[in-house]
Amino acid sequence: MTARTPSIRYFKQDVDGTNIFYREAGTPTAPAVLLMHGFPSSSHMFRGLIPLLAQHFHVIAPDLPGFGFSDAPSRSHFAYTFDHLTDVMERFTEAIGLARYALYIFDYGAPVGLRLALRHPERITAIVSQNGNAYEEGLSAGWNPIQRYWAQPTQENRNALKAFLSPDATKWQYTQGTDESHIAPESYTLDSALLARAGNEDVQLDLFLDYGTNVTLYPRFQQYFREHRPPLLAVWGKGDPFFLPAGAHAFTRDNPNAQVAFFDTGHFALETHGSEIGAKIVEFLRALEPVEVGARAVSEDLHAAEH
Fold it and tell me: Which of 5, 91, 245, 275, CA to CA, is 20 to 30 A from 199?
């Protein structure tokens, strides 16, 4: 008999008036994994990975505000900055009762997830970085137009970035560095449709501008790796046009126990190598379970003793 594929459930959680859409699967009492998507995608990018992980873990995959099926509040009363996205995700995890979890961080999900780790290192059991950068050497020349906007936030430089939001640019992000015949067209088609929602262009341009704050935080992220040494696995599409392999190797400089695995694909590595990456993540996280279970038992014993 073959094991039954865990079903995925779909919910919305109100966070201070913003509805956050999320996918959930697995047993709630199992170790938790929080999947953080990037630009221009949503939790839809994890549609194949979630069933693989949910056989062993409690999996939660939210859509950031302004992305996927979460609300996209007006810029007039919602600041689209990475600090604010982190505020929402912090309150989201608390609202659904996610006290300790492993992080899967990808693209935009990296600066949001690592901000969560800075705020609450005690909540993070492990980190899986899939093309989630935290080092300047990981930034390719593809960032040059955006870096120009950081240095000179003029309307002209802002307008120049609108090309990144076109359907062709979105498709290119999926297909560059890999075999296009392995990319499901609904992936980039859905992203393009959601990017095209009224008002979303300026939301994304605001986030392009604020991304510079993430690079400013790289030294603090690196200090976190050195001080807390979270178990860390970097799984990297080596053909990524934005985040170079050097960004994956760099994790071992601050966290010598970090594991690094490269795959012959691009930015959206799950689209072509989801099974291989999923197996690697399961192997990595399951090897940590006795440590985590032991730590949880000690914590429970101390709590009992205090009361």
Answer: 91
Say which of 37, 56, 267, 273 is annotated catalytic.
Answer: 267
Record: fold of 9-142+214-306 = Rossmann fold (3.40.50)
Asked about 267 being catalytic, the answer comes back as yes
Residue pLDDT tens, the chain, 307 long = 455 677 999 999 999 999 999 999 999 999 999 999 999 999 999 999 999 999 999 999 999 999 999 999 999 999 999 999 999 999 999 999 999 999 999 999 999 999 999 999 999 999 999 999 999 999 999 999 999 999 999 999 999 999 999 999 999 999 999 999 999 999 999 999 999 999 999 999 999 999 999 999 999 999 999 999 999 999 999 999 999 999 999 999 999 999 999 999 999 999 999 999 999 999 999 999 764 443 443 343 434 444 4
Sketch the domain layout of the chain as residue ranges.
9-142+214-306
Distance between CA atoms of residues 28 and 113, nearest Å: 21
CA 135 from centre of chain: 16
* Helices within the chain (DSSP H only): 49-54, 82-95, 109-119, 144-151, 155-160, 167-175, 185-195, 200-210, 212-228, 245-249, 251-254, 270-286, 289-306
**Which conformational region is residue 97 in: left (phi greater than 0), alpha (psi within -120 to 50 degrees), or beta?**
left
Choose among 255, 218, 13, 230: nearest CA to 117.
230
Name the one residue in this structure whose structure tokens are 């609202």. Answer: 95
Rg (CA), the chain: 19
**For 266, how many CA atoms within 13 A lie in the half-sphere containing its CB?**
17
CA–CA distance from 258 to each of 116, 230, 252 (Å)?
Answer: 19, 8, 5
Instruction: Give, in order, the Cα–Cα distances in Å from 240 to each of 46, 138, 267.
Output: 18, 10, 4
Backbone φ/ψ region at 107: left (φ over 0), alpha (ψ -120 to 50), beta: left
Distance of CA 249 to the CA centre of its chain: 18
Neighbours of 261 (CB within 10 A): 15
